[in-house]
Amino acid sequence: TEILIDPKMAFGTGSHPTTRLCMEIAEELELMGKTVLDCGCGSGIISIACVKLGASGAYGFDNDPFSVENASENAIINQVQDKTSFIEADICGIDVKNYDIVFANIISGTLMECLGRFHEFCSVQGKIVFSGLLAEEEEYFISGLTGNGFIPLEVRRLGEWIAVLAGRATENS
Length: 173
Hints:
- The protein is α/β, with parallel strands linked by helices and 173 residues long.
- Helix content is 32%, strand content 31%.
- The protein contains 6 helices and 7 strands, in the order αβαβαββααβαββ.
- Helix 1 packs parallel to helix 2.
- The longest helix has 13 residues, at 65-77.
């Protein structure tokens, strides 16, 4: 899938290991007709990729206004502006809505602080990809996931970085 990105001042050219891990997982997930939330959307690369891979819509937010502007521009360049939407907000300012797939490629401290909030975004059968984590944080992060209603499904590594694919725990799990 070809994606054109003019990153300007936004994070997410596809070259950083955390973004690459997210993109690898996105390519393997069944995205056809799914809704995607891109937390910390940066350049919009993950949202754009998901729509090009069949998602019915991708919604991104970032607390950096330059990122939101850049993500919107990149959606136009990639001709997916009709299936993407980007807003300036932090995680507490986003309306709770259940998404099929959630990507959270942001710094690990924010990931840990907001695990409960991420749980609210993910549909019952949904999946969430956490990235922005160093390999040395894996055990601590997995412990936090299970304590916040998630089931770790896979851990991917690239250099010193990891991404964790998780699902919501059910009452029976």
